[in-house]
């Protein structure tokens, strides 16, 4: 693995991968509203925002990719 890859701050779930370095500078938290299956919660919005996949909800995902499209920072990757 290259140094650049090691330094990345990615939250890995089963098939969602979220670049938390991007969430840190996010202002609109569009992922939360984008997902009609209620999968995301952004925590610490006032300090260091962090998108999380709510426990046990990941399997609700239908891979519609609305969230990956609406996250302007392109922080979300879905396998
Ligand atoms: S996933 Fe995208 S929209 Fe959601 S908090 Fe992170 S950067 Fe913002
Ligand atoms: S792909 Fe669709 S269902 Fe899955 S997390 Fe994104 S918006 Fe929600």
Task: Explain this structure.
The protein is α+β, with helices and mostly antiparallel strands. It has a single domain (3-78), classed as Alpha-Beta Plaits (2-Layer Sandwich), CATH 3.30.70. The protein is 23% helix and 23% strand. The strands form two sheets. The chain has a three-stranded antiparallel beta sheet. The protein has a two-stranded antiparallel sheet with strand order 3-4. Strand 3 (40-43) and strand 4 form a beta hairpin. The protein is globular and about 30 Å long. The relative contact order is 0.27. The mean pLDDT is 94. Residues 18, 22-23, 26, 29-31, 42, 49, 51, 71, 73, 75-76 line the site of one iron/sulfur cluster.
Topology at a glance:
Layout: H1 3-6, E1 10-12, E2 16-19, H2 20-23, H3 30-34, E3 40-43, E4 50-53, H4 66-70, E5 76-78
Antiparallel strand pairs: 1-2, 2-5, 3-4
């Amino acid at each position: 693995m290259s140094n650049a890859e090691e330094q990345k701050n990615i939250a890995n779930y089963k098939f969602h991968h979220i670049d938390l370095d991007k969430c840190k500078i996010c202002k609109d938290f569009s992922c939360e509203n984008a997902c009609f299956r209620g999968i995301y919660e952004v925590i610490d919005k006032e300090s260091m925002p962090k998108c999380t996949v709510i426990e046990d909800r990941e399997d609700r995902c239908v891979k519609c990719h609305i969230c990956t499209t609406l996250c302007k920072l392109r922080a979300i990757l879905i396998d």
